[in-house]
Amino acid sequence: MMRKLVAAGAMALGIAMLPLTAAHAGSTWIVTVKVSHTTVNVGQKVTFTGTVKPRGAAAGEKVVLQERFKPGAKWKEQKKDKLNSRGKYSFSDKPSANTQHSYRVVMPATGKHPKGVSKTVRVTVYGWVSLTSLPSVNDEGMSFRSVDINGKTYDDSVVSYWANATTSIEFNLAHRCDSLRATFGLSTSSTTGGQAEIGVLSDGISVYDQTFDLEQTELKRIALDTPLKIKLMSTDSNLDLDIDGYGALGDPQVHCTR
Question: What is 66-121 written as a DSSP string?
Fold first, then answer.
């Protein structure tokens, strides 16, 4: 009987009897996030968009983009954005380190709503690094040092130093690199008429094979299927023991994430 009287009184006063909504209850902010790219190069722009709900209550408030560079590290504030009238935001970032970056968006607590945090999104960032900075193994007549190829000096290079033989060296890439680039040719330590065949194996599969004379060079980028390791090879092609061909890779780099 009492409930009927209260309801009747409310109706008489023109007060709508509505269920208690999340907005009225002061619920936790609901934050969504969408990333434009999950794999990028160093310096490439990544855009983050999303909404905060309840939208009406969120409009005009500021939301925060946070980032961390490795698991277990502390989240760091990147930037803030003001939510529009529909509770939407947009951020952009240009990551400068070739690592896997994690991002999330945080809506700080207000008087009526506790803090809300979006899901974590991960962006894998690739960049060029010197091949010789990575671990090398099984060197057979090849080493890395400065080398001259067709009259040009390359300071950080891989070169054969055995004549009339096949030489090789391996580098451990740990499934983190997707391409190799270098200037291929012969070291000017080779004799006139020298020739060598240069090859690259990606986990045992040939991805490059070319024969060079002394004055020939090729600047080449080679796709790699994120191998565990690559093997560089050079074979002196001339059967004349008085003519030597030393294959070389000038300033080889790999496109990797850490």
Answer: EEESSTTPPPEEEEEEE--TTSEEEEEE---SSSEEEEEEEE---SSS--EEPPPE
Distances in Å between the Cα of 7 and the Cα atoms of 17, 54, 62, 66 are 8, 28, 40, 48
- Could you list the pLDDT tens digit for every one of the 258 residues in the chain? 434 433 444 444 333 333 434 444 579 999 999 999 999 999 999 999 999 999 999 999 999 999 998 878 899 999 999 999 999 999 999 999 999 999 999 999 998 899 999 999 999 999 999 999 999 999 999 999 999 999 999 999 999 999 999 999 999 999 999 999 999 999 999 999 999 999 999 999 999 999 999 999 999 999 999 999 999 999 999 878 889 999 999 999 999 999
* Nearest-angstrom CA–CA distance, 214 and 81: 59
Euclidean distance between CA atoms 34 and 44, whole angstroms? 17
Q: Are the beta carbons of 212 and 129 closer than 8 angstroms?
A: no
What the chain holds in terms of domains, given with CATH numbers, is 25-126 (2.60.40.10), 134-256 (2.60.120.1060)
Tell me how far apart the alpha carbons of residues 96 and 28 are, in angstroms, rounded to a whole number.
Answer: 33
